[in-house]
Amino acid sequence: MSQGILESSIFKASGASGKFVNSLKNDMLLFFGTRPGKKETKVLAEVQCPHCGQNGTLTAVSQANYIHLFWIPLFKIGVSQFAECTHCKRGFYKEEFSKEMEGAM
Description:
single chain; alpha+beta; rod-shaped; disordered N terminus
């Protein structure tokens, strides 16, 4: 069956009027979204835990979020940070950081 006959039979079966256009040739598939980057971990050696008072037990984690296109990061849209005390297991969000913790980051 030739291409013209196939197109006209699909066109008639659909009940549409006008010219049949193969839209698959003109379409493009895009993969985009947000993804977290690599985690950066840092031990805050000289900082005291605000909860239990132990020195050198805080570990801070920073992770950037990126806009990506086809899984390639294009630009940073934000950074999430938190800290955890290895002694009392208390977690701290960035909003809860003391001035001492922010200075050590």
